[in-house]
Design goal:
The chain is of the alpha+beta class. It has a single domain, classed as Beta Barrel (Porin), CATH 2.40.160.20. The protein has an 8-stranded antiparallel beta barrel with strand order 1-2-4-5-6-7-8-9. It is elongated, with a radius of gyration of 22 Å. The relative contact order is 0.20.
């Protein structure tokens, strides 16, 4: 996680401290009337969470164009599934054992919940400020809001109150920064790092993807080489 974080901090620093390179002013001055689907992409990524193990993610992103000068709107849907960290399961087992002991008045039982998985379907919308830098590369940074549909499952908890406690729809937000390269006017490669916050869990999320453009590029986005 540290190496990924240092990478994206370096990207941000390069964009900020390089004078005369960033040319976001060349992007079209669009307004809300111009928001429409102009591209879609597929993403693969990896998450580094606080409560569950590291896991792969899969996603779909949409490009709705620019709300204002250099301000791009990008909705996305992302899926990941990961087992809870061992320490989290042990803590839950201890709580269940304590609850049973309090209810029965007897000794604390030995509770074994086995493997518990958490699945998340994330529906997000990001607002990204986009700059053009040399070599036809676009740099973007932004914030987003999201709804996380979380579902817990495991052979020992399915159909119990524990599963119900792990199932929820939770609001979240993120900060992100990334790079985008137009291979052609119709195909782009992109990479980004995101810091996601939802409830009592946070995670760093590295994403890589391919975007297919179905609409026109804005001024300043075209491939020039």
């Amino acid at each position: 996680m540290g190496s990924f974080a240092r990478l994206w901090v370096g990207v941000v620093a390069a964009c900020v401290v390089t004078p005369g390179v960033i040319a976001g002013q060349e992007l079209a001055d669009f307004d809300y009337e111009n928001l429409s689907l102009r591209g879609f992409g597929f993403e693969w990524g990896y998450i580094y969470p606080t409560r569950v193990d590291e896991a792969e993610s899969y996603g779909l992103r949409l490009d709705l164009g620019y709300l204002g000068p250099g301000l791009r709107i990008v909705p996305s849907v992302t899926y990941w599934k990961a087992p809870f960290k061992a320490a989290e399961v042990v803590e839950l087992e201890d709580r269940v054992a304590s609850l049973i002991q309090d209810q029965t008045g007897g000794p604390a039982p030995n509770v074994d919940l086995g493997t518990i998985n958490w699945t998340d379907i994330v529906v997000a919308i990001d607002a990204q400020v986009v700059w053009e830098i040399p070599l036809d590369i676009l740099t973007f940074a932004g914030v987003g809001v999201a709804a996380h549909s979380l579902n817990g499952d495991g052979s020992a908890i399915n159909g119990t109150f524990i599963e119900d406690l792990l199932d929820s729809v939770t609001a979240g937000f993120n900060f992100h920064v990334g790079l985008e390269y137009p291979v052609t006017d119709r195909f782009r490669l992109n990479a980004q790092g995101r810091y996601e916050v939802l409830g009592d869990m946070q995670y760093f999320h590295g994403r890589f993807g391919l975007q297919i453009m179905t609409g026109a590029n804005a001024p300043g986005e075209e491939r020039r080489r």
